[in-house]
Design a protein that fits this description.
Order of helices and strands: HHHHHHHHHHHH
Distance between the termini: 17 Å
Structural class: mainly alpha
Radius of gyration: 18 Å
Number of helices: 12
Length: 288
Amino acid sequence: MDIKAIAMGLAFALIWSSAFTSARFIVTQAPPLTISALRFLLAGLIAIAIARAMGQTWQLTRVQWRSVVIFGVCQNAIYLGLNFVAMQTVEASLAAIIASSMPLLVGLIGWVVLKDRLPMLGVVGLVTGFGGVALIMGARLSGQVDMLGLGLCVIAALALAVATLAMRGASSGGNLMMVVGLQMLVGCAVLAVCAAFFEEMSIYWNLELGLAFAYTTLVPGILATFIWFVLVARIGAVKAATFHFLNPFFGVAIAAVFLGEQLGVWDLIGVAVITAGILAVQLSKQRG
């Protein structure tokens, strides 16, 4: 793994983790499904325009088209849509911690369902990582946590794991920015239908909402997704996923700095344990 790949991985982890904090700003002031659909519409159109300017075409491979649909539905509509709804009542740090368990879920699904080989280090990593999640959940559940919001975060993390598994083959065939744009439009379409049924589609704009919306749309939305696709194409999905071990730390740190969310001792211990578990799982895959 070269210096450029490391820099890209660090940038992705930091940007991806910051999305929970910016989303928290947004959902306290706007309908979550409606604002998410608008975000993906704008981000998708911008990404497609950039792709066309780069000379990319609509000629995707069959695997890429399948990935566009699965990734758009699972990551954008289900994962991000449910997280936006959940963060009306759940703190950004908790949402980030649950979402950061995604590499553990991918490892578990790959091992149990897809029968992927997982060395002993990976098994230990899974047990350790989920143990860290249990530590945090046990501490949080003793306080005041919205159970519906917590459940939505868990479902969202499972959807993200499915989307990640669907990434296999999406980076081959070129046209990466076009893939990024099209999967955002898929998410927009699904969320727009849901918003029409469940929300009053009205948004009252102010400076804070506008800045948070612009940042979430352009940076985690377009830039981070493009970096991820390029990183996967450069070093492979297994090595790229190693950088997810930074997400628990970055997620809670950013939420603490910008939102003033309080972190207990068990939160910090749990984050450290999850981080170690994720790293062990990813390292075991590379060795395997």
